[in-house]
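Ligand-bound model needed. guanosine-5'-diphosphate.
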Amino acid sequence: MEAGIVGLPNVGKSTLFNALTESKSAASENYPFCTIEPNEGVITVPDDRLDKITTYITPQKVIPAVVKLVDIAGIVKGASEGEGLGNKFLSHIRAVDAILQVVRCFEDPDVIHVSGQVDPMADIETIEMELMLADIESLQSAQQKAGKTARSGNKEAIERLAVIDKCLAHLESETPLRKLELTEPEEKCIRSFGLMTLKPLLYVANVSEDDVEGTSELATKVREYAAGVGAGFVAVCASIESELAEVPAEDRGEMLDAYGLKEPALNVLAREAYRTLGLQSYFTAGEKEVRAWTVPVGTAAPQAAGVIHTDFEKTFIRVNVFTLDDLVEHGSENEIKNAGKLRVEGKAYIVQDGDICHFLCN
Ligand code: GDP
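Prediction:
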């Protein structure tokens, strides 16, 4: 699962991406399965629950969850027709699972805006339009292919064609597919097209230093728009965050206070990106390590175990589960068991966000 950062030139993408990957570059030895390209970064997802768990269980290591980010540079007006990096850019977006769009809400006469003035709503419209045009193009070519097969009476192709037509009609009314209601079979049938306006979206408003909460008129417009189109929203001041990222973690407190921040906004951004990707964490807690493991919402216990080791999915027998509240109340897994609160769950169990799991496998 990975999220791609997009945005018009000069909105602060690189500044944010560098701050994110600099301050949080996760210890790569813990994630040997990730190959990291130059425009990719792995960021940790700060989670208070890990700190709480380690007040009861003292491990040798604490390993938080991570999100992979891809910096997708190069969108400009006309990208869908091959302007700028055009098609290459679009193929990068097709490959990610969610989109983080940075929009400029800060005024700074020294930083040129590509269209001459700071207007986040116009920027949003420009990018949305390029993505819709590209989706229309993908769907039209799929329509041709499905059309041929459908004419020979192929049932699957006839069904696919109906969904393609439905999506095209929606896009032609200038609305992103995110707002279109699709049944699960319909969604499945177009999943392989990599449609971009169907991907979960998080707007990252790059706000001025004096508007860290994003309450200015410009940021408010973006927040309200995001809520209306089913997208997430987070306000971040990239220049503050890049300063913060250069300061050792233990020295950040004073700077945060000075800016009126409770924690770096990048922490909020990392958590929101995780949520936008539809991810959640369960924990394992032992003396060796306390660790957050990442699973999509709705994952069953055997598949969740498979994230730790692929064999565990097949050899899964059962899982002992407790919650952080149980741990706070009773102090240890043993005491939770003695109190009759340790749940034993089988293969059909759907893992919940925050579960502390102890898997038993063959
Ligand atoms: P990108 O083209 O979207 O990757 O934008 P950059 O990250 O390269 O930023 C473009 C310019 O805007 C650089 O000169 C940054 O220093 C500046 N910049 C980025 N974020 C902020 C911000 O929050 N406030 C101010 N004043 N300048 C910023």
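The chain has three domains: 2-46+65-121+198-276, 129-197, 298-361.
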